[in-house]
UniProtKB/TrEMBL annotation:
SMART domains reported in the protein's UniProt record: AFOR_N
Keywords: 4Fe-4S, Iron, Iron-sulfur, Metal-binding, Oxidoreductase
Every Aldehyde ferredoxin oxidoreductase N-terminal domain range: 8-208
Cofactor field: tungstopterin; [4Fe-4S] cluster
Protein name, UniProt field: Aldehyde ferredoxin oxidoreductase
Gene3D superfamilies cross-referenced by the UniProt entry: Aldehyde Ferredoxin Oxidoreductase Protein, subunit A, domain 2 (1.10.569.10), Aldehyde Ferredoxin Oxidoreductase Protein, subunit A, domain 3 (1.10.599.10), Aldehyde ferredoxin oxidoreductase, N-terminal domain (3.60.9.10)
SUPFAM superfamilies attached to this UniProt entry: Aldehyde ferredoxin oxidoreductase, C-terminal domains, Aldehyde ferredoxin oxidoreductase, N-terminal domain
GO molecular function, a single term: 4 iron, 4 sulfur cluster binding
Organism: Thermofilum adornatum
């Protein structure tokens, strides 16, 4: 057995209020941790065809050998069956979650069953407590839940507090789980799975230590990685402006999806750009645990109290590119303040920002076309740039006062089957698009990536690299597959993908040695392809059919930096992906 790898898996049965620990060194030695181990644990524990919002669904949190060992290895992987797509759900979050789980003594946590009453679960190393959460259930803001638990739970400074807002309780299929206030398990509806299990929060703390087999080599490798991170121009951009630096860049490329992708740039983009917000609203930067980059940018909003001169309520709002794209550009934001207020509201309710913005953008266009009425919208007249109406609409997505909002709370793939407007509903595999209208690789990424996420294989990077030339469909798919396979290694370690160009294969191989793991670069590539295969086998088992994937017509109407996308070209890409997936899942 390898001492430097995680090994213990904590199993929690919410139905019986029981827990136990199993030594699963076999899984960690084969798959390292994170994505690899989580995929296999979910496959083991999830009954075929389970209802995503039923007690048979399973939540797996997994960390890897680099968590709490190397800088920027700060992510936790969550795996579950998604209520949003009905298929594989995978979401990653930073904050303190990974280090808290690792120092509590676990490589993974498996949550099964469903509680009869609202609970929060407190994991304090070898002990697990089931706390009644009826007093927390129904709290308007996820931020308030965090404040309450900070007062009553031990482990200040080293714990993680994962919790849901009202959206999770109401089973909105794109409800998220918030951790450490400004980080999220954002996509695919983990918050709704928490809500279906009556699990309001999960608190983890511990003070255990991690051993390395070669301290001298560990120090050398650590210093090498740290220097690469703090000196890297790539990482510097994340510290200075953060991901919102993308707003002006993509707007200039005409790759910024705006007004429900009716256009690919926005006249007022400068007013919601990372540079503008940093100059006018930035309050501070914070980091995930064990990360020197501090990419989390917090804007400060000051609101005067009524009838109180010189007294203000101060609110810190975390902002990244994705919420600015979805809740700003897609909704026609003209200035930053209203957009930041909407981001804060979406956060407090516990909604995924990207899906929420795309849903509201579709509803705005559908209303303008007469597909939905003012009555359907609860008395609202949605129009791009009207943030007072958007704030009310976001609350209605959670309160669900009309049939339309009840349908929109299940996402656009569901709602448009009843209300129409599928041609301009920007969903891929049931998941709403991310903020890159860069070209064919991005859309192949959304359609066929394992999570239908821009982070699966960064197709937007490949698009920007190849502006002015067209790859053969087979070559495009091959390159996306190679990238996504390699990312299975990085997300099994588990590192933040912002540092993916620091953790190159040679560095990863070297960094594993002080942990007692000998893996060559070739071994790592083989492992990545193996995890990719296992993930797609699970997706197919749960009903994913790549041959049924379709592309919304809107993406062919609005020019990209590559010009107008060709429907016939994208169909050839689809054919290549179908062949690839069939080939991969039949390999041994």
């Amino acid at each position: 057995m390898v001492d430097g790898l995680p090994r213990n898996v904590l199993y929690i049965d919410l139905s019986r209020k029981k827990y136990w620990v199993e030594d699963r060194h076999d899984l960690f030695e084969e798959y390292l941790g994170g994505t690899g181990v989580a995929t296999k644990l979910l496959e083991e524990e999830l009954p075929r065809g389970a209802d995503p919002l039923g007690p048979d669904n399973v939540i797996v949190f997994a960390v890897g050998p680099f968590n709490a060992v190397y800088p920027t290895a700060s992510k936790t992987v969550a795996m579950f069956k998604s209520p949003h797509t009905g298929n594989l759900g995978e979401s990653h979050a930073g904050g303190r979650s990974a280090i808290a789980i690792r120092l509590a003594g676990y490589g993974a946590i498996v949550i099964k069953g469903a509680s009869d009453l609202p609970v929060w679960v407190s994991i304090q190393e070898d002990k697990v407590f089931f706390r009644e959460a009826r007093a927390l259930w129904g709290m308007t803001s996820s931020h308030t839940v965090g404040r309450v638990l900070r007062e009553v739970e031990p482990g200040s400074g080293i714990r993680t507090i994962m919790r849901i807002g009202r959206a999770g309780e109401k089973l909105v299929t794109y409800a998220n789980v918030i951790t450490e206030t400004y980080r999220h398990f954002g996509r695919l509806g983990l918050g709704a799975v928490f809500g279906s299990k009556k699990l309001k929060a999960l608190v983890v703390s511990g003070k255990k230590s991690i051993q390395v087999s070669d301290r001298k080599l560990y120090r050398e490798v650590y210093d090498e990685i740290y220097k690469l991170i703090v000196d890297s121009p790539l990482m510097k951009k994340y510290h200075e402006i953060g991901t919102p630096v993308n707003v002006n860049v993509l707007n200039a490329l005409k790759a910024l999806p705006s007004l429900n992708l009716q256009c690919s740039s926005l006249e007022t983009a400068e007013k919601i750009s990372g540079e503008y917000i940093a100059a006018n609203y930035l309050g501070r930067r914070v980091s995930c645990a064990h990360c020197p980059v501090a990419c989390i940018h917090l804007a400060v909003l000051r609101e005067p109290y009524e009838e109180e001169s010189y007294f203000y309520k101060t609110t810190f709002v975390g902002y990244d590119y994705e919420p600015i794209y979805a809740l700003g550009a897609m909704l026609g934001a003209k200035e930053a303040k209203s957009m930041l207020e909407l981001i804060d509201l979406v956060d407090s309710l516990g909604l995924d920002a990207m899906t929420t913005g795309v849903v509201l953008a579709w509803a705005t266009e559908a209303y303008s076309r007469g597909l939905i009425s003012e009555n359907d919208l609860g008395g609202l007249k949605l129009s791009f740039g009207d943030y007072d109406s958007y704030k009310k609409a976001v609350q209605y997505l959670v309160e669900q006062p009309t049939e339309l909002y009840r349908d929109l709370a299940k996402g656009l793939d569901y709602a448009t089957r009843k209300w129409g407007g599928r041609d301009f509903a920007l969903t891929f595999g049931g998941n709403e698009m991310a903020g890159y209208h860069t070209g064919p690789a991005a859309y192949a990424n959304y359609a066929f990536g394992a999570r239908h996420s821009h982070l699966d294989n960064a197709g937007y990077d490949l698009d920007q690299e190849t502006i002015g030339r067209t790859l053969e469909p087979s070559e495009l798919v091959r390159r996306l597959y190679e990238e996504e396979s390699w990312r299975q290694v990085l997300t099994s370690l588990v590192i933040c993908l912002f540092a993916r160009k620091v953790y190159r294969p040679e560095i990863v191989s070297k960094a594993l040695r002080p942990l007692g793991v000998e893996m060559s670069v070739d071994d790592l590539y083989k492992l990545g392809k193996k995890i990719y295969r296992e993930k797609y086998r699970l997706k197919l088992r749960e009903g994913y059919k790549p041959e049924d994937v379709t592309f919304p017509k809107r993406i062919f109407e609005t020019p990209t930096p590559h010009g107008q996308l060709s429907e016939s070209y994208m169909e050839k890409v689809k054919e290549e992906y179908v062949k690839l997936i069939q080939q991969v899942v039949t390999e041994e």
